[in-house]
Write a structure and sequence with these properties.
Blueprint: H1 2-17, H2 30-52, H3 72-75, H4 83-96, H5 113-137, H6 154-158, H7 169-188, H8 195-215, H9 221-241, E1 249-257, E2 263-271
């Protein structure tokens, strides 16, 4: 953690030294962002402990869930178990993490590499925190648990890993990375003619991962859709929240008295349009 903080500080310092070449649309606050990043990493660590401590579905076939209990929107995927699709999904998933590095080739953005790197780490940590806690707290059988063809052995169907269908972490992380990359690029280059094509690519890549994860029997459609929405929202709004004064989206402390007469304090979200 200390090494990560030191490396991030060096990157941000280097970015500020070279900021004379271009103006960044973002600002970084070590207090707020430090708390945000620390909370996200803490949530991720806690989520992993929840995942590791999940119980197996049972000890014999009588514990297996009934396909008929699945909602109609998801039932068609029950029983899917394509291992090749699972391995194939890892390719666009891995490629997505490299997409923000396109900023290194952008004259407007590469002078602010440290700041962009900080926001990217923050985005991924936020996504990881949300996903691991959800995966640790929610027990939902993956589609392959319903595989009655004999291709998926009983031990795998009963193991606790099969209870992490909700929601798709692969899709969420992919969407976070791609939407973050295009959001930052478009903020630095608002008039670029390439932006619509980049947004199309940002949308297609996590959708492709989602399709492959369903075919692999790892997630149902709703798991993929939830991962897509949460991941893309994180990738888009984390940079938006770092916009300099005048940005449309802002988070600020708020306090007052409720209509019941009770005092309250917390954080408020404001969107100006």
């Amino acid at each position: 953690m200390k090494k990560l903080t030191l490396a991030l500080a060096i990157l941000l310092s280097y970015s500020s030294i070279n900021a004379q070449s271009s103006v960044s649309p973002y600002e970084w606050d070590w207090v707020k962002d430090g708390i945000w990043l620390g909370a996200s990493l803490g949530a991720t660590a806690y989520g992993f402990t929840l995942i590791q401590n999940k119980d197996d579905l049972g000890t014999d076939a009588s514990a297996l869930p009934n396909k008929e209990d699945i909602s109609g929107i998801n039932r068609w995927a029950a029983g899917k178990h394509d291992e090749d699709a699972s391995k194939l999904s890892d390719i666009p998933f891995a490629l997505a993490f490299a997409t923000p590095f396109i900023m290194l080739f952008d004259d407007e953005a590469n002078d602010h590499t440290g700041k962009i790197a900080g926001m990217y780490i923050e985005s991924l940590a936020t996504t990881a925190g949300l996903f691991t806690i959800a995966a640790g707290l929610v027990d939902k059988s993956r589609p392959y648990v319903y595989d009655e063809s004999g291709d998926t052995d009983l031990g795998r169907r009963l193991k606790n890993n099969g209870q992490r269908s909700f929601y798709s972490g692969h899709v969420a992380a992919t969407a976070t990375a791609t939407f973050f990359a295009v959001k930052v690029y478009s903020d630095f280059n608002p008039d670029s003619p390439a932006t619509p094509y980049l947004w199309a690519g940002a949308a297609v890549l996590p959708a492709t991962v989602g399709y492959l994860r369903i075919e692999a029997g790892q997630h149902f459609l709703t798991d993929v859709l939830i991962g897509y929405v949460l991941g893309s929202a994180t990738g888009y709004f984390v940079p938006e929240l770092h916009k300099t004064k005048g940005a449309k989206l802002d988070v600020y402390p708020s306090s007052g008295m409720s209509f019941t007469g009770e005092n309250y304090s917390g954080m408020a979200l404001r969107y100006t349009f």
